[in-house]
């Protein structure tokens, strides 16, 4: 594996087992994502997109296969080590924003940094102020999430995701709850972060958004059925 391979999945499978049902959510996923790539992930409901993102983001573990993150095998890591790595390396953006309602914009962005004992308080403050500026929310730093539009809330969620300078941003339908204007501002923000070097994996149902990535992946029934330069997605229409 070369240095620029940020992610390497080898034969990854995920089976959810309940008493009555076994769901093969992912089957034999082989995938390499290099540093700086912007990858969109599409596919019908239930095909395994969020499951893939949870595994990539160390929120969940695969039931088979190997996952190398920056060259380190992470499948065998314990809960605590996984959580530490997740906090350092991964920034999440969810469809439903997932901001904490009784924390201000500033405090929401600050929250993941509170677990970082390698940063001083003044460094943390500088990071939060930087992130606020990046997403153009400085003037709203003392607002609560309920006082913001959906697009503004999602921009705060992006700021929270990038605060720790993660290796990778994982976004699950980041524009799914937004109107077209707000969706556009969030897409532009992701594009800007990508241009500045961020690695981004974005689940989207919207072909126009998918096209704005470098690379288009499509899942079907837990398997990758398309992996191509995003430019070709003009033909994809679902
Ligand atoms: N915690 C769980 N326990 C059992 N089954 C699960 C669990 N999470 C997901 N699944 C199942 O795994 C499959 C893949 O789910 P996943 O959430 O990854 O789909 P998705 O592609 O993100 O769908 P959507 O577009 O609707 O968000 C589905 O059949 C789902 O029912
Ligand atoms: Mg999903």
Task: Give a description of the structure.
The protein has 238 residues and is an alpha/beta fold. It has one domain (36-60, 79-235): P-loop containing nucleotide triphosphate hydrolases (Rossmann fold). It is 30% helix and 28% strand. It is built from seven helices and ten strands. The strands form two sheets. A six-stranded mixed sheet has the order 6-7-8-3-9-10, sandwiched between helices. It has a four-stranded antiparallel sheet with strand order 2-1-4-5, with helices on one face. A hairpin with a 2-residue loop joins strand 4 (64-69) and strand 5 (72-73). Helix 4 (121-134) packs across helix 5 and helix 5 (150-162) runs parallel beside helix 6. The longest helix has 16 residues, at 180-195. It is globular and about 45 Å long. The two termini are 35 Å apart. Mean pLDDT is 93; it is low at 232-238. Bound molecules: adenosine-5'-triphosphate and magnesium ion. Magnesium ion (MG) is lined by residues 49-50, 172.
SSE arrangement:
Blueprint: E1 5-17, E2 22-34, E3 38-42, H1 49-56, E4 64-69, E5 72-73, H2 79-89, E6 90-94, H3 105-110, H4 121-134, H5 150-162, E7 168-172, H6 180-195, E8 199-203, H7 207-210, E9 215-220, E10 223-229
Parallel strand pairs: 3-8, 3-9, 6-7, 7-8
Antiparallel strand pairs: 1-2, 1-4, 4-5, 9-10
Helix pairs in contact: 4-5, 5-6
Adenosine-5'-triphosphate binds at residues 16, 23, 25, 43, 45-51.
Q: Give the strand line-up of the largest sheet.
A: 6-7-8-3-9-10
Percent of residues in helices comes to 25-40%
Low-confidence stretches: 232-238
User: Can you give the mean pLDDT?
Assistant: 93
- Which small-molecule ligands are present, each listed once? adenosine-5'-triphosphate, magnesium ion
Distance between the termini: 35 Å
The top level CATH class name: Alpha Beta
- Biggest sheet architecture: 6 strands, mixed
Q: Hey, roughly how much beta strand do the residues contain? A: 25-35%
Report the radius of gyration as a whole number of Å. Answer: 18 Å
């Amino acid at each position: 594996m070369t240095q620029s391979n940020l992610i390497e999945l080898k034969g990854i499978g995920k089976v959810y087992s309940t008493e009555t049902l076994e769901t093969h959510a992912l089957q034999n996923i082989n995938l390499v994502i290099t540093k700086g790539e912007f990858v969109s992930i599409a596919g019908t409901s239930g095909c395994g997109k969020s499951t893939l993102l949870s595994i990539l983001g160390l929120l969940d573990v695969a039931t088979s296969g190997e996952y190398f993150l920056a060259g380190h095998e992470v499948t065998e890591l314990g809960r605590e080590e996984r959580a530490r790595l997740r906090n350092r390396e991964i920034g999440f953006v969810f469809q439903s924003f997932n901001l904490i309602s009784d924390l201000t914009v500033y405090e929401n962005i600050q929250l993941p940094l509170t677990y970082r004992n390698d940063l001083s308080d003044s460094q943390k403050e500088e990071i939060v102020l930087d992130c606020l500026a990046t997403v153009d929310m400085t003037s709203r730093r003392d607002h609560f999430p309920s006082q913001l539009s959906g697009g503004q809330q999602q921009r705060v969620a992006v700021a929270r995701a990038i605060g720790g300078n993660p290796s990778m941003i994982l976004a699950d339908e980041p524009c799914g709850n937004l109107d077209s204007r707000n969706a556009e501002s969030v897409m532009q923000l992701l594009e800007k972060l990508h241009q500045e070097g961020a690695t981004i994996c974005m689940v989207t149902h919207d072909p126009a958004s998918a096209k704005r990535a470098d690379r288009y992946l499509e899942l079907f029934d837990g398997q990758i059925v398309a992996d191509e330069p995003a430019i070709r997605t003009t033909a994809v229409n679902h």
